[in-house]
Amino acid sequence: MARFHSPLRAALLTGVALFAAAxxxxxxxxxxxxxxxxxxxEAPVDGEVVVTGIRGSLARALNEKRAATNIVDVINAEDVxxxxxxxxxxxLENVSGIQIDRAQGVGSNVSIRGSSxxxxxxxxxxxxxxxxxxxxxxxxxxxxxxxxxxxxxKVATADQLEGSVGGxxxxxxxxxxxxxxxxxxxxxxxxxAEYSDSFNPRVSAVFGKSFDTGIGEIGVVxxxxxxxxxxxxxxxxxxxxxxxNIDLDGDGTADPYLRPNYAQQFNTVRKxxxxxxxxxxxxxxxxxxxLFVDGTYIDQSITGSEYGVFFHQPSDIAEQPNLASATxxxxxxxxxxxxxxxxxIISDTRLRSRNNSPARFTTSYLAAGGGEWEKGDVKxxxxxxxxxxxxxxxxxxxxxxxxxxxxxxxxxxxxxxSPPILFDLSEDDLYYAPDxxxxxxxxxxxxxxxxxxxxxxxxxxxxxxxxxxxIDVEWTTDLGxxxxxxxxxxxxxxDSERERYTQASRTFPGFTAxxxxxxFGLAQDDVFESTGRQYIGGFIAxxxxxxxxxAARAAFGLLPxxxxxxxxxxxxxxxxxxxxxxxxxDTEVGGIGIRGNAGVRYVRTKQTTIGNAISEGAxxxxxxxxxxxxxxxxxxxxxxxxxxxxxxxxxxxSLRRPDFAQLSPSVNFPLxxxxxxxxxxxxxxxxxxxxxxxAVEWYFDRNSLISVGGFYKKYHDLVSTVxxxxxxxxxxxxxxxxxxxxxxxxxxxxVDLTGNQGVCVGINQPQNTGGATLKxxxxxxxxxxxxLPGFLDGFGVIANYTYQDGDRDTTFNAPGFxxxxxxxxxxxxxxxxxxxxxxxLTLFYEKYGLNARIRYTKRDPFxxxxxxxxxxxxxxxxxxxxxxxxxxxxxxxxxxxITFSAINLTNEISVERAIFADGPVGQRRAADRRFVLGFxxxx
Length: 939
Hints:
mainly beta; 22-stranded antiparallel beta barrel; 5 helices
């Protein structure tokens, strides 16, 4: 596949490089009337930090921040196309205290102050997830084109919804009564993704107008968007196994060391199609009464393929590295010394090519109606809403084995051909691939050498519904410093249901790729090409059958449709009632302004979990019901000791209910048997967190700010994944009793890697594992150099830095030989997704119709999960990673502009590590570098 060698592509790269070197600036969009973002009567709430344009909007942002009570970060779009990012996750990357994760190079997950357990709202209302988690709609499913503004609350007030121990992300759509003039805008773009070599279109539009009628003013806004995107990510992961019975130095005693025993290489392609629509109608029926209806609809489909290959050397047979050609090095991780194989040749490897064909089709919606009524000093807001999502996920995996047609064992796993595998970790640059010069690898492109091994078929249906009814009353008072009293209540009915359908074929069904060329193809030969090393490629692999697996099912002897897997299906019904009271204060003492609020929220939840339990292979229906109550107090204070300084302090208690899947009594059996299975725990309690904040802000110049703040969070009933091993029945630790798995569980449908049906496996289960603490510092700086002469006064800078550190009660057992002993040692675990240091630096320029920016983001390593099969059920870490994005826009006139942006300019590789944050490299991923060319117009 070509790699950015055409004149167009070279010109794009050259233009970006010249732009970054010459101007180091941040692109912004056409100047627009800021009233398009939100109606006048929906001014930003207390604590909003507005990041809108570059010049005019900075002054507005700082004025709003100075008038704030609590700390809430806001990004305003002001018009369609004002946000250069692709989805909600990428939009939030500019906010201090927020880090994002990426899948195939696209923003997918958001961590707020060390937690991804956030709550996503639309216009203050709850949304539903695509799967069986919590928190609301997927960040990656929300296109930026829908966004008028986004508010991020880090410490919730009593009137805000419970459900987050990280932050509340409130997506605000366009509203009609706030428009000072009609709006009609359109944006069209095309994106080039380098690795997938694809051109991806995006188009969006917003239309809005308010009408004076005989029955009152009516405002109508309609916005929508369409995008198609194909992206690619190359991945290689290696699982390390301790070898403890080899004498390396000839002294007669064993010398333990880590060696690779299993690896996977994937070439992952995802095709995303997103169709979105949002609209609102507001009616000022009377001076004291406003009514509204609004709705949002998002249709997201993701299809793709994962061409790849498994390398396997089971630890229970005689397959070993060729130690004569291997280097066993002394390594050190987290202060512990150990030995590890860092390069060499691995022999007797079984190679199995595969293709997983994943698909997800999700429709999400939110509809609401309500109003606002005022009478004297009393204001009443009321509304009803319904949110829902229906999601169908499917994955059809086919596996074939590289085998010798001349072997008498052709037709079983012993017929394998085992080319020597080259392994190299000497420079922490993971490499694992067959020796391309070996004659044993010469037939990799011959379909007669690839024998069908197994097919695994699974589909999952998710249905989530959330109905809510809410009323809020505010009484404006004149009682000294007390300015108003708020009370309110909310009823909520949530239901989440999952149905899973699975089947697996028998092993070695009796045909090769040559027999069924319609089911096989040639895998990519340019994996990790940017590294300059030749990884495995050009081999025969099963074809992608995402949308049409019927022929593959028939070839492998599967049923036309996978049967229901009752063991993995469940339903959760949840009913909650919440009420709150809140006091708002505003006064002055000795010339010092003081503002604040204090309140409490009461929540009662009744939870019913319905599923199926597995006991000795038998399925038994299970139903579990429980009720719990929580009081969630909060208090916020803002003091102005002088005109240009604001001091803030706040406290709040938040609640996070367990994910629906975590509550399920059912078991999610994988269709391969040598991995731990996931199971839920209906006895889980919600997590809570007590959070304390303090900040000082100095507005030292026009459009300028230095802000320093600290926070402390105390978690209770933290939910962590705990691994429970099956019981061994022989001293070698390689066999289990299928009739008595002990603490483990028997998977009757799984097929192990040697073809046996039914396997004893361990369990990964969520459990409440005590408490944790997290402390941090957030520093923000922004400044416009308006005092510089000539063209230099167009420059400016926005910078954020966040430091986080925490500890918790949970530990993990590190293998003894890694810690200098013979028995496992319990070591402390950090909190998930907490990077100690996080940086965000944006340089911008806005003048002469040119709007430009360049943004650098970096975050330190963090724990992804406490246990995963990739690391033999030990911790798994993400290494530090930086990314550079840039964009430039030029306003041809006041109605038309041209834009260009580049994502992942430096083509960063993502690295993940096993056991320790600085442990051995377990995975490396390389995603697309993307370039976007487009235009914006206003009618």
